[in-house]
């Protein structure tokens, strides 16, 4: 109960700003990236709006090492086939939802799935281990508080459930593709939903804090060719390095 209150306080004032910035991620002309003078170590200097990327004390991603047992409430997923738009925003491949009919229920709160996107290699680590791919499912509640569900992938054979996205990558930044058929995001969520929970931030500028992070313990699979195809479209990796834990607690 105490841990729930802590998260509620943390997510309060800052999350509305984080939500509005997340919705702006597809902008074409964002002057940040993952290489050279626009790489993550320089984000805080690129704009005053990005200062928290360097000053923040609850930044994401993290290396999950030390945890406490908090008897976390179950994650209830209510996703269904939906109309989507696949966007190459220059920083990732993002799948935006045109309908507000995909919900995640947690601790008596309801979050609507806004979009999901990918990072190669993973941004979050588990006990020092990096993964070839990570998906972030970005949700917001009615007050704008954000909850991001992270799914990590291990190398295996081809993941056919990713095919509707992978076979329709927009090849250039700013391009979009609207599939003719609905896509069911529930196919990308592992059946077992034990998770790690911590307070964090957006992993891209402006790095707004107050984001409720949920990283699933069960991994999904992806092939090396799928990883390579994503990297080719992105022209390299698109992951922010892990950030200091500082005074935060990771609950499992």
From TrEMBL:
Domain of life: Bacteria
Family of this protein: Belongs to the alpha-carbonic anhydrase family.
SMART domains on file: Carb_anhydrase
Domain Alpha-carbonic anhydrase: 30-252
Entry keywords, A to Z: Lyase, Metal-binding, Signal, Zinc
Matches recorded under Pfam families: Carb_anhydrase
Cofactor(s) for this UniProt protein: Zn(2+)
MF terms in GO: carbonate dehydratase activity; zinc ion binding
Reactions the enzyme catalyzes: hydrogencarbonate + H(+) = CO2 + H2O
Source species taxonomy: Bacteria, Pseudomonadati, Pseudomonadota, Gammaproteobacteria, Pasteurellales
InterPro entries noted in UniProt: Alpha_CA_prokaryot-like (IPR041891), CA_dom (IPR001148), CA_dom_sf (IPR036398), Carbonic_anhydrase_a-class (IPR023561), Carbonic_anhydrase_a-class_CS (IPR018338)
Function as written in the Swiss-Prot or TrEMBL entry: Reversible hydration of carbon dioxide.
Record's protein name: Carbonic anhydrase
Membrane-traversing stretches: none
Membrane recorded as keyword: no
The keyword Ribonucleoprotein belongs to this UniProt entry's keyword annotation: no
Signal peptide: 1-20
The protein's Enzyme Commission number: 4.2.1.1
PANTHER family hit by this protein: CARBONIC ANHYDRASE (PTHR18952:SF265)
Annotated PROSITE patterns: ALPHA_CA_1, ALPHA_CA_2, PROKAR_LIPOPROTEIN
Gene for this chain: cah
């Amino acid at each position: 109960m105490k841990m729930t209150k802590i998260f509620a306080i943390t997510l309060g004032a800052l999350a509305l700003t984080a939500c509005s910035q997340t919705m702006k991620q597809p902008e074409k002309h964002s002057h940040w990236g993952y290489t050279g003078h626009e790489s993550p170590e320089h984000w805080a200097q690129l704009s005053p709006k990005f200062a928290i990327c360097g000053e923040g004390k609850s930044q994401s991603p993290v290396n999950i090492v030390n945890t406490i047992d908090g008897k976390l409430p179950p994650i209830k997923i209510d996703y269904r086939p939906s109309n989507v738009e696949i966007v190459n925003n220059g920083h990732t491949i993002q799948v935006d939802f045109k309908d507000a009919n995909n919900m995640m229920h947690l601790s008596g709160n309801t979050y609507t799935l806004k979009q999901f996107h990918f990072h190669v290699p993973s941004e979050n680590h588990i006990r020092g281990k990096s993964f070839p791919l990570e998906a972030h499912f970005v949700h917001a509640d009615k007050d704008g508080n954000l909850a991001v569900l992270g799914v990590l992938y291990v190398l295996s054979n081809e993941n056919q459930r990713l095919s509707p996205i992978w076979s329709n990558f927009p090849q250039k930044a700013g391009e979009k593709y609207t599939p003719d058929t609905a896509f069911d995001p529930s196919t990308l969520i592992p059946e077992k939903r034990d998770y790690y929970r911590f307070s964090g931030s957006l992993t891209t500028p402006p790095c707004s804090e107050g984001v409720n992070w949920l990283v699933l313990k069960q991994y999904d699979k992806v092939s090396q060719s799928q990883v390579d195809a994503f990297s080719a479209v992105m022209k390299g990796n698109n992951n922010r390095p892990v950030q200091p834990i500082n005074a935060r607690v990771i609950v499992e």
